[in-house]
Amino acid sequence: MPGDTPVKIGFLLWPQTDSWPTIRDAALRAERAGAASLWTWDHLLSIVGPWQGPILEGWSILAGWAQVTERTTLGLMVGANTFRNPGLTAKLATTLDHLSGGRAVLGLGGAWFEREHEAFGIDFGSGFGERLDRLDEAVMLLRRLLDGETVTHDGPVYPMRDALVQPRPIQARLPIMIGGSGPKKTLRTLARYGDKWNAMGRLPKLAERDAILRAHCEAIGRDHREIERTTTVDLVIRDDRAAALDAYRAQLAAVGDEYDATWNYFVGTPAEIADGLRPILDLGFRHVLVDARPPYDLETIDRIGEVLEILDA
Length: 313
What we know:
Layout: E1 8-13, H1 20-33, E2 37-40, H2 58-68, E3 73-76, E4 79-80, H3 86-99, E5 104-109, H4 114-120, H5 128-146, E6 151-153, E7 160-163, E8 176-179, H6 186-193, E9 196-199, H7 203-220, E10 228-237, H8 241-254, E11 265-268, H9 270-283, E12 287-292, H10 298-312
């Protein structure tokens, strides 16, 4: 049952920066403050503000974090399936698991940012449906490779001949996270192969898509409770709501972002934020990921334990 599952909070630290020390130190602060997980993007160009802006590479950030953190899980939110063959992705995730002592999460999605594919000559496919078909095939292969199988597969997109991953990951089952909520393809892939799910949006949409996931799981005889639900939100902690709202607006402006009315945001005191999060937690999304724009909101990072303390009371 959702209420029996501990509440976890993680931070999605945007890599739109040219400063490794800044994103490294934000990750360390988040771990000290009680974060359960650390995430970053998998993009080759900036996706908010001018596309020509600075952005660091995601897998490299995770490898760096693996060397300086001790407890948090580490993953991409989420990896672009179009960027890499699933065999390479399996090796990257396995190596990260070894670098981190068994803390890797393999996040994957169908990819959406056409501009970066055009810039670097990466095949974007004919449309979103095709990319999701590729994702389904890739995740199937990843699950088999990570679980120790020697894989021979005839395609249609990713043919393999006696492919294997050695050494094996440290984790007996390295978790695969699927990002997205497409009802026909993405959630079906998640039900078949995924261990974690990241969804975005307000409560009614989360509830609707959660019901669809449950139906997909039922159709294949899988217990939906095996899949951890996570959701990404905007969150700003201050001593009063007005100050938090001012800080939130400043954060959006600093990166050329605009508020999206379909997005969940929680601003105010720790008690106000805890009250706002409870309906989502009660739905079963017990792992909340805080969208963290540069320059990172250090007060919110440092005080996230106050929210956790209220929710755990």
